[in-house]
Amino acid sequence: MDVDDLVFRSRALAQTHPHSRTADRFVRATIARERANQPMHEIGDWAGYAITTGYCLRKVEESMVGDPVPLADVDWRESDLEGAVADVVRIVRSTDSQAPYLLEPDTVVATLDHLIVGEIDRRLDQWKDELEAEVWQSLEDYLAWWLIAGYALRIVETRPVEEE
Predict the structure, then answer these.
(1) What is the number of helices (H) and of strands (E) in the chain?
(2) Euclidean distance between CA atoms 159 and 73, whole angstroms
(3) Which among 86, 63, 46 has a CA at the least distance from the CA of 12?
(4) Which residues contact 150 (CB under 8 A, 6 or more apart)?
(5) Which of 44, 49, 57, 63 is 20 to 30 A (C-alpha) from 36?
(6) Sign of dihedral through CA atoms 138, 16, 75, 148?
(7) 160 pLDDT exceeds 70?
(8) 47 exposure class (CB count in 10 Å sphere: 0-12, 13-18, 19+)
(9) With contact defined as beta carbons under 8 Å apart, do 32 and 65 qualify?
């Protein structure tokens, strides 16, 4: 499967309310928190859209390998889920990533990059000439983090928590 097909399928799935209950709670909590913390409440909505898009990429990736991936039987506390997602985001963003990709890593990374660029274009392009470079970069990083967080969220909710 090529990147363009993965991007198309991920964006199409994002239109269908694809979340589990855990993911839905995560997205709603993130949107509410980000709306309150950002200078424009729409930025919180952007986080929610980005999470959903990344989450859907992982679901598409799962569908490509065949069997449906069951949800882990975990009743997540919000702070624990946020921490687990942040841990996976760090793994996915690392250069020597040990990320649990289901498809070829180069394909997944290229698809994530393409989806991130799409989010940036949709959300920021209208302000391209008005925003300072530092603000622009900060918003790019913001959208990238939340998109990868969505991908990580699906990974976290489909794998059992390791016992310590």
Answers:
(1) 6, 0
(2) 9
(3) 63
(4) 50, 51, 52, 53, 54, 55, 56, 57, 58
(5) 57
(6) negative
(7) no
(8) buried
(9) no
Any idea what the Cα angle at residue 53 is, between residues 117 and 8, rounded to 5°? 75
Q: Which residue, 151, 30, 31, 47, is CA-closest to 89?
A: 151
Structure tokens at 75: 């009743």
User: Mean pLDDT, to the nearest integer, of 88-99?
Assistant: 82
Q: Are 47 and 147 in contact (CB under 8 A)?
A: no
pLDDT at 136: 72
Asked if residue 164 has pLDDT above 70, the reply is: no
Residue where the block lists tokens 């506390």: 77
pLDDT per residue over 3-55, tens digit each?
A: 999 999 999 999 998 899 899 999 999 999 999 998 888 889 989 999 999 99
Q: Residues 102-116: pLDDT tens digits?
A: 999 999 999 999 999
